[in-house]
Amino acid sequence: MALPSEQLQLNPRFNQLKELLRSANYSKKIKKGSFLFQEGMPANELYLICSGKLQMIKTCPDGKEMCFRICSVGEIVGELTLFTNDPKYLLTAKVIEDGEVAVIEKDYLEEQLLLNPSLTFEYMQWLSNHTRRTQTKFRDLILHGKKGALYSTLIRMSNSYGIPLKDGSILIDLPLKNQDLANFCGTTRESVNRMLNALKNKGILSIKRGKITIHDLDYLKSEIQCENCPVEICRIE
Predict the structure, then answer these.
(1) What is the spatial distance between Cα 118 and Cα 113, in angstroms, rounded to a whole number?
(2) Residues 6+ apart with CB under 8 A from 187
(3) pTM assigned to the model
(4) Average of pLDDT values for 125-145?
(5) Mean pLDDT value across residues 138-161
(6) Who contacts 47 (Cβ-Cβ below 8 Å, separation ≥6)?
């Protein structure tokens, strides 16, 4: 069943892989507050988001949730371990906005990867990009602690959802609660609240109606010795 092309607005990257998913046999409705899949479940499917949004999260031993990325239209989700027996999903996909996903089964994807070298190359690139994003996020957390995690999250948010303003500031066009940021940073809401207040007092950022405007992005970058990674890597998606 081919999905309507007007729904997708596909990113030009990974066209073959997304086209394969778009022509999947069926689609699935997703509802806010539900889970597309959960960590530890059998990894039998891969998904392309046609509409809606998901959070990819990891539950820590103490019960806290750590959010790795937000996925929206045109993004591929489903942490598969291909060509292995009994693969499991490595993360949980939590639906934060109603939508629909295209579904492709693991066995069929493996078959297509064996037959199509260029498709296999795209899939390897996709996995490599996600690995690099995860590594840089952990690097900031390990080297700079909670502050580094928050600052790098704000930088990634600005790359993914930032709207440049006339005065040079960047509006992150995504409503965020302090708990949402805490989940991205692997820390508490109280810690994020203190750090945000410190940044507001310095004039680095401001918050209005749940949306953050960054007035001095260079300050955040200098505080974590930003390596100016390519934007495709330094994103929250």
Answers:
(1) 8
(2) 146, 149, 150
(3) 0.74
(4) 78
(5) 85
(6) 21, 28, 36, 76, 77, 78, 93, 101, 102, 103, 104
Angle at 13 between CA 9 and CA 16, to 5 degrees: 90
Could you identify the residue written with the tokens 């940021």?
Answer: 181
Q: Which residues contact 43 (CB under 8 A, 6 or more apart)?
A: 37, 78, 79, 80, 81, 87, 88, 89, 106
- pLDDT exceeds cutoff 50 at 3: no
Residue 194, both tokens:
């203190």
Helix segments in the chain, DSSP class H? 15-22, 106-115, 117-161, 178-185, 189-201, 217-223
Closest CA to 47 of 102, 97, 5: 102
Q: What is the pLDDT of residues 21-68, one digit of tens each?
A: 777 778 899 999 999 999 999 998 989 898 999 999 988 777 778 888
Instruction: Give the burial class of 159: count Cβ atoms within 10 A of its Cβ; 0-12 exposed, 13-18 middle, 19 or more buried.
Output: buried
- With CA atoms as reference, report the closest residue to 215 among 140, 160, 164: 164
d(CA 107, CA 116): 14
Predicted confidence (pLDDT) at residue 69 exceeds the cutoff of 80: yes
Q: Which domains does the chain have, with CATH numbers?
A: 15-115 (2.60.120.10), 144-233 (1.10.10.10)
How far is 230 from 235, CA to CA, in rounded Å? Answer: 9
Judge contact between 72 and 49, C-beta under 8 A: yes
| Higher pLDDT, residue 126 or 223 | 223
Mean confidence (pLDDT) of the chain? 85
